[in-house]
Task: structure prediction
Amino acid sequence: MLPESLLVRLRDARHVCVLTGAGVSAESGVPTFRDAQQGLWAQYDPMELATPEAFQRDPELVWRWYRWRRELVSKAEPNAGHRALAELQDLVPRLTLVTQNVDGLHQRAGSRDVIEFHGNIFSNRCFARCNDDRLVDRDDATVPACPDCGAPARPGVVWFGEGIPEVALNASFAAAADCDVFLSVGTSSIVYPAAGLGTIAHESGAMTVEVNPNPTEQSGGFTSTLRDNAAVILPKLIELLAH
Ligand code: BV8
Ligand code: ZN
Result:
């Protein structure tokens, strides 16, 4: 059951901040980041492939991995957890949704102004960063070339060892520090700086809640933890909030 205190705080909240991770897309059939890679990819460690070094070493391999994931994500549909977060946006005065996911499922569920902390798997950018603002809209080869400088194009995601896009970083930190309620949904809270948002919210006096069927490294730092799937808990939360 959901704690009454959470409902009271949500009803009074001026600003709610939600951080999601791969767990919110699990029920859409998108494997979480740390699930054992399926089939062909079982022998690769995502921590190895999601790096600029891996791309430098073998752009073809990295592109094949991303194409495989793009294929998987394009066949996935948003689930009840995504849809509940889209509804929450119209039930509170202000909602900041920060996602670590690169699958675009929150937007497909109707969420607006989603902060994509780690980028988006469907966008391509120039690996040589000749023009960071320009998305490379060519997808004609395994490793598409940047039309401006001919360097290889890369998926528009943030790799390990790369900085978070400035705008996303600042907006997320500001929202965590300003919000009255912070929900951490479907993340193992391992990857920084995303995993630091919950601590900022907690230290700024927000009520912080972890929605995850399993405990995480940060469970002890939350006001409360709801041990069930996002697609079960979030619709229940909306149901109670809306009535
Ligand atoms: C940075 C995009 C500095 C790509 C991702 C050594 C070397 C280099 C860096 C580091 C290092 N040591 C530490 C670091 C920092 C590093 C880091 O934190 N590493 C970790 C592993 C210790 N961070 C970085 O490198 C970041 N950048 O620090 O740069 C810098 C600063 C300025 C200038 C230059 C440099 C960048 C990190 C971004 C990496 N990119 N993704 C891609 O997707 O291909 S991270 C990747 O992991 C995904 O985005 C994913 O979202 C993220 C976190 O994983 P989760 O989402 O939490 O998923 P996970 O599978 O782990 O957990 C799922 C959870 O869901 C589980 O808890 C499960 O119980 C739960 N669950 C399951 N089912 C459900 C559910 N919950 C609810 N409902 C369900 N049904
Ligand atoms: Zn270029």
Residues 21-23, 26-27, 32-34, 50, 100-102, 118, 157-163, 186-188, 190-192, 211-214, 216, 229-230 surround BV8 (ligand 1) (CB under 6 Å). The chain has ten helices and eight strands. The beta strands are 16-20, 95-99, 115-116, 119-126, 153-157, 181-185, 207-211, 224-226.
